[in-house]
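Design a sequence for this backbone.
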């Protein structure tokens, strides 16, 4: 079953929400990605910068011995193109983070994402089977959400707010959120309250895979 996105209008009824919270539903947390961390981890600006640097060194070695004009012109052209590409990626990361707002209530997780076209995904806590935490520097991190059964969101609709390299059944992911460990604990606690009697899971996806059982996920706390 595909989860249909909700197209936002010019004004939101509440920040990050297509309509006000129903009576009895409580807001637990709201947050957005850090655009610098998005640039590094979602758009791979750091890896590309290293790649461009290596290519420039190789180009310089290849042209070594040429007259100064013949040496500098292609190097400066390559440097300009590399910086332009990195600037475009960093700008995309900034716009992506600026247009994103994640919301956790005691009933659901709401992801408002998009740059030109804004989409909102409502993920009821009862349809979430696992929340796995991948830590990053300075307390930031990704929190990937596994959805129950045949609930599925198209990867292209989610990107870059999807767990990397999980394509067959994409996992909505809160990308590069500050104080991610505390946010993951809030999600697990809210999930427990919405799913009484079933153990929840909080794990590090970089070290331990998500483990699911017929009765729900088991708890795995990252080191």
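Sequence:
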């Amino acid at each position: 079953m595909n989860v249909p996105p909700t197209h936002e209008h010019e004004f939101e009824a509440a920040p990050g929400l297509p309509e006000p919270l129903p009576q009895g539903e409580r807001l637990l947390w709201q947050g957005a990605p850090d655009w610098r961390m998005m640039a590094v981890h979602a758009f791979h600006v750091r890896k590309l910068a290293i790649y461009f640097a290596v290519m420039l060194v190789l180009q310089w070695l290849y042209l070594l011995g040429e007259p100064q004009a013949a040496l500098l012109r292609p190097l400066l052209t390559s440097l300009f193109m590399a910086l332009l590409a990195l600037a475009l990626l960093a700008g995309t990361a900034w716009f992506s983070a600026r247009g994103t707002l994640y919301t956790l209530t005691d009933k659901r997780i709401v992801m408002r994402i998009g740059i030109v076209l804004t989409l909102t995904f409502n993920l009821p806590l009862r349809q979430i089977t696992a929340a796995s935490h991948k830590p990053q520097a300075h307390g930031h991190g990704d929190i990937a959400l596994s959805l129950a059964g045949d609930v599925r969101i198209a990867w292209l609709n989610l990107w870059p707010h999807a767990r990397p390299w999980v394509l067959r059944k994409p996992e909505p992911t809160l990308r590069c959120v500050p104080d991610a460990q505390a946010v993951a604990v809030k999600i697990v606690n809210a999930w427990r309250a919405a799913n009484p009697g079933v153990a929840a899971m909080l794990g590090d996806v970089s070290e331990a895979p998500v483990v699911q059982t017929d009765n729900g996920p088991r708890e795995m706390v990252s080191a």
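Confidence is low (pLDDT under 50) at residues 4-9, 204-223.
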